[in-house]
Amino acid sequence: MTASLTAHSVLPDDDRPPPARFAYDRHTWKEIAYLLSNLPVAVAGFVYATFTVFTGVGLSVTVIGLPWLVAGLTGARLLGRAERARARALLGVRIDEPSPLHGSGGRGRSRKGQAKKRGGSEGFFGWVWAGLKDPVAWRTVLYGFVRLPWGVVTFSVTLVGFFVLWPVLPHIARGLANADRAMVRGLLSPSDELERRIAELESDRGVVVDTAAADLRRIERDLHDGAQARLVALAMGLGLAKEKLLEDPKAAADMVDEAHGEVKLALQELRDLARGIHPAVLTDRGLDAALSSIASRCTVPVKVTVDLGERPAEAIEGIAYFTVSELLQNISKHSAARSAAVDVWRADDRLLIQVRDDGRGGARLDGGTGMSGLAERLGAVDGLFVLDSPEGGPTVVTAELPWRERGKA
Question: Hey, where are the domains in the chain?
Fold first, then answer.
């Protein structure tokens, strides 16, 4: 047996220079095992890829064609996972697993869950579309196609090496295994940040749509139950006053006076509703004046400090306003605090918000106080939401939003 020393071809995790090793050590035998197993694995992968693609394309003119193709691509993801595991065990290749097809990247609800919520039909077509444009699955299919000729070559050369090229077989195996490592990294690795960012953006888009729909339902409910009902009652009252105008002027005057009060209440409700959509003070004077306005309506004394210098993008400004507004409402309703503070400032290209109170604490993201909704809204625009609220207080909420230039949101 050859006792010459060769370099280890698998770099450790810290990328230090690989240590020297004997030619026929356990690493070499793992590489040889990998190369010999290439042929049966490559045949299976080629057959699966060919069958999936050609039957899916051939049936695409029928109802089952595209779902069949998507199901095959989903299975290709599983084959890719098995291949990564084989390369990890025998070649020492460390590759992260790709993001789940319908995952959210760790922010908000899954896109699949949102599709189910909106209806089964949209969920099915969403699944088909997501599967058809899945880059991980298509790269795995390509991997299955190109592996067959390569599997034949590596199997044949390694097998012949056992009987003819035994002294130099470790060097041959190492070269072939390095080519395999490059192929696995090139075709079976996730698309790093790009792929994960796409998954996050798809999930965040669903959160934005859900949030907008919830806001529209709230506005419709407020109009129906508030100003609209009051205006209907006002119209009826004025109609009765008109009928009594000649026969009972005093009663008619009382009814008109009551209607006047109803008009004032309806106007106030409409102002409050408009303020909930987008307050005029925010548009005209910015966050400092707008936050001071909502702080003045809080049942707890609030100190507001805004240090920005210039105004952020309008959309970001609006999200910051409503975030603070909801947090101050929570303080009024749930905290039993004696005082609170709001600080807003800019750090590089981020807008930071911190809301503190000296209340009883114990707030949670899943506590039914709207905290989870705030976290989702901020996450939808690449923001962060951090809640620190131990039992007994104090409660500190820190929010971070992208700044963006005004007019470019």
Answer: 5-190, 206-277, 281-402
Q: Long-range pairs for 272-278 at CB < 8 Å and ≥24 separation?
A: 273/219, 273/222, 273/223, 273/226, 273/227, 276/218, 276/219, 276/222, 277/219, 278/318
Distance CA 23, CA 31 (A): 11
**pLDDT tier at 149, thresholds 50, 70, 90:** very high
pLDDT in tens, 266-287: 776 666 655 555 677 777 888 8
Q: In DSSP terms, which residues pair with 395 in a beta bridge?
A: 357
What pLDDT, on the 0 to 100 scale, is given for residue 119? 43
pLDDT in tens, 298-333: 889 999 999 988 888 888 888 888 889 889 888 888
The answer to whether the 206-277 and 281-402 domains have the same CATH topology is no
Residues 121 and 134: their CA atoms lie apart, in Å, by 20
Architecture of domain 206-277: Up-down Bundle (1.20)
**HSE-up of 315 (CA within 13 Å, CB side)?**
14
Q: Higher pLDDT residue, 265 or 288?
A: 288
Look up residue 235 and give its two tokens: 């119209």
Q: What is the pTM of this model?
A: 0.45
Q: Give the pLDDT confidence of 343-359 residue by residue, as tens digits.
A: 999 988 899 999 999 98
* Burial zone of 220 (CB within 10 Å; 0-12 exposed, 13-18 middle, 19+ buried): exposed
What's the CATH code, domain 281-402? 3.30.565.10
